[in-house]
Specification:
The chain has 243 residues and is an alpha+beta fold. The protein contains seven helices and 15 strands. The chain has two domains: 5-105, AhpD-like; 123-240, Jelly Rolls (Sandwich).
């Protein structure tokens, strides 16, 4: 994870409190937040928001972490439910203050992702959710062409596209940052404009980076008796090491 937090300490306090700045930038936001194999960025955001609200820190720090929570995939309805739950433990006035901040970050109209999608993201991908870690969205655009949108940290299980002849898949990346890996090869970082040809029978996985949404078109290559064979989930520790 790389964002303004990794330099904020040095930018604002480097001359006055260099050791605090180092701990803030290198340890908290450089190491702790990047341990996605132990706790996802989305869950860390929820924990952080809860801690700040409970402590009564209803200032720009909470506002920032609410924004970060949205970027990490926390939906509008989820943050509303979380604050409602916290109201019974942290206090009603604190919940009111948190709601005022959250309403600015999750405006009317729902869960705005941090880019303007090239194609509609579609509905939550419930039909295949058992084959995904995290949340994804699926939109059929044409015969054999789907827009797949991954929320931060979401990726599918290892799988292969099989066929008696022909077959395979092409991925055309449109938004965000993600990863692709074919079995036996190193992971490949993906971004808008990247394309991946997946040979028939090749075992692979793909999905979002831990701190970014990601979208690609999945184009099915026509084949005889084509099918998708789902395999084991991606190893959490291996995924957590991806920068």
């Amino acid at each position: 994870m790389r964002s303004w937090e990794t330099t904020a300490g040095r930018d604002e306090l480097g001359d006055f409190a260099p050791e605090f700045a180092r701990l803030n930038d290198d340890v908290l936001f450089g190491e702790v937040w990047s341990r996605g194999d132990r706790l996802s960025a989305r869950d860390r955001s929820l924990v952080t928001v809860a801690a700040l609200l409970a402590a009564g820190n209803l200032d720009s720090s909470l506002s920032h972490h609410l924004s970060r929570a949205r970027e990490n995939g926390v939906a509008r309805a989820e943050i509303a439910e979380a604050i409602t739950h916290l109201a019974f433990y942290a206090g009603w006035p604190r919940a009111w203050a948190a709601f005022r901040l959250a309403m600015d970050i999750w405006p009317e109209g729902g869960d705005v992702i941090p880019f303007s999608p090239v194609f509609p993201i579609g509905e939550p991908n419930e039909a295949y959710s058992r084959h995904f870690a995290g949340r994804s969205h699926l939109k059929r655009l044409a015969e054999g062409v789907f827009n797949v949108t991954f929320e931060p940290g979401c990726r599918n299980d290892w799988h292969a596209h099989t066929a008696d002849s022909g077959g395979g898949q092409v991925l055309l990346c449109t938004d965000g940052r993600g990863w692709f890996q074919e079995r036996g090869r190193p992971p490949r970082k993906l971004g808008p404009g990247d394309a991946v040809t997946v040979p028939c029978g090749a075992e692979h996985w793909h999905g979002a980076a831990g701190d970014s949404w990601f979208a690609h078109l999945a184009v099915e290559v026509p084949g005889e008796n084509a099918a998708t064979v789902w395999l084991e989930p991606v190893n959490e520790e291996d995924y957590g090491r991806l920068a």
